[in-house]
Each structure stands twice: as structure tokens, then as C-alpha cells.
Amino acid sequence: MQVENDLKIRMSYLQALEDEKYTLLPRGPAALQMVRSYVTFLGIDPEPMIAEFREQHYVEQYEPLPALGGSRLPRSLPSWVIWAVAVLLALAVAVGAILYFDPAFFQNLWAQIIGLIPQATP
User: How far apart are CA 51 and CA 44, in angstroms?
Assistant: First the structure.
């Protein structure tokens, strides 16, 4: 109990270290810190123990899923490309709907545009 109070490491983790049940330790830098603290408390040089622990056990930092607060996954396309395609598709749908419901709309529009432009007389 004194070691637990001095090192601020739970007794279950200390027992896992003593029994060499390293799978019961948390992953990542927390496990390395626990090993370093415990070995230093025992008066042993921690560097060889840390190197051996890294070689024999997976100690990389666990990255949580994006939905659980992790970093976002990289996108394959920039967002401006997606917006440009969405705008072009909306315009295509609008023009298609106008052509379907009022086929003479563009002919009348073209005639009005031509009528606004002054004609050059020879």
C-alpha cells in the first residue's frame, strides 16, 4: 500500500508489473511511465527495462475513432470541388426542369436578348 501511495499507481497495476502480466497495463505512454516509476522506486536503472518493455510489448499511443473524439480522416477531394460539383448539378437540374416544363422558354429568352441588342444597318 505504501508503494501505491508513493507512486500514485493503482495496486492492480503494481501487481500486474510484479506478476509480469503486462497486458493488464494501459497502452501508450502511461504504461511506460508506470514501469519507469516502479523500477526507479526499486532502485534499478530504468532505461534497460524500458527498452526491453518496448521491444516485447505494444506501447504505441491508441488513437480513438473520429466519432469518439479522434482526429478526422483525410478527405480524398477538397471541399471546394464538392461544392462546385453540387452547384453544377443544381444548375443542370434547373435547366432540365425548365426545358421539360416550358420548352419554348429558351427560344423566347434568346429572342428577347437579340431584340435588346441594336442591329447595325448597312
Answer: 14
pLDDT in tens, 84-112: 999 999 999 999 999 999 988 888 888 88
**Residue 53: exposure state from Cβ atoms within 10 A (0-12, 13-18, ≥19):** buried
**Neighbouring residues of 7: CB distance < 8 A, sequence distance ≥ 6:** 14, 37, 38, 41
Task: Look at residue 77 in the predicted model and tell me its pLDDT.
Answer: 83
Closest C-alpha to 24, from 14, 9, 36: 14
* Domain regions of the chain by residue span: 2-62, 77-116
